[in-house]
């Protein structure tokens, strides 16, 4: 009886906090979509000024690189605070475009592991509710796993293994990976690897005597 009472003493405040959270978060979450749109716009503007072909000694180009890094870091901080209060933007509430914008912002700081862990946690909840694309979760989860030295759960990340070949970063049990990919509607690991390598060979490693495929037109 005492154990049951103690359990309810713990659970009741948690239930109350869960019920109160949406009301408390509502004022700062109302402009979630607009905030995300501004973040994407700021990053695109900064990225448009970067000269990726400039030599290292070009001070103007270096300043633009630094500005882009600052904008992306600020965006990650802002999205992190919003996720802490509002969760991942919901397609049914903030809109599909807001969810896409959040994904674009999340990808800007791929090497910020603390931020990426937060992204994966929030995407897990959103996908469970049907409010975010499962492919976004798969990609974010695998990118984080690769950076942390863990095997991929979905097989979305490849690395160059030869002059004209790419192969997967370490994978979880292959049968389980294939099952997860099937649930997401993704092709088999072998089909995906074959498609990637065919594209690489076509664009960058033509057969001897064959003209290289020109891209960027």
From TrEMBL:
One Pfam family in the UniProt entry: DUF6624
Domain of life: Bacteria
InterPro entries: DUF6624 (IPR046732), TAT_signal (IPR006311)
Signal sequence, renumbered to the chain: 1-25
Keyword list, A-Z: Signal
Protein name per its UniProtKB record: DUF6624 domain-containing protein
């Amino acid at each position: 009886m005492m154990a049951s009472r103690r359990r309810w003493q713990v659970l009741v405040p948690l239930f109350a906090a869960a019920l109160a959270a949406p009301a408390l978060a509502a004022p700062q979450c109302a402009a979630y979509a607009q905030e995300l749109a501004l973040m994407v716009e700021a990053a695109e503007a900064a990225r448009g000024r970067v000269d990726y072909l400039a030599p290292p000694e070009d001070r103007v180009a270096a300043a633009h690189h630094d500005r882009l890094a600052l904008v992306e870091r600020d965006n990650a901080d802002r999205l992190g605070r919003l996720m802490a209060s509002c969760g991942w933007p919901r397609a049914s509430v903030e809109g599909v475009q807001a969810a896409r914008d959040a994904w674009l912002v999340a990808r800007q700081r791929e090497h910020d592991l603390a931020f990426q862990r937060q992204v994966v946690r929030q995407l897990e909840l959103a996908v469970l509710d049907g409010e975010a694309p499962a492919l976004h979760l798969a990609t974010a989860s695998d990118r984080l796993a690769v950076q942390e030295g863990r095997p991929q759960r979905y097989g979305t990340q490849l690395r160059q293994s030869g002059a004209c070949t790419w192969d997967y970063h370490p994978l979880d049990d292959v049968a389980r990976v294939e099952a997860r990919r099937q649930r997401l509607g993704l092709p088999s690991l072998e089909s995906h690897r074959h498609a990637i390598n065919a594209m690489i060979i076509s664009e960058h490693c033509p057969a001897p005597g064959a003209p290289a495929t020109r891209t960027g037109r």
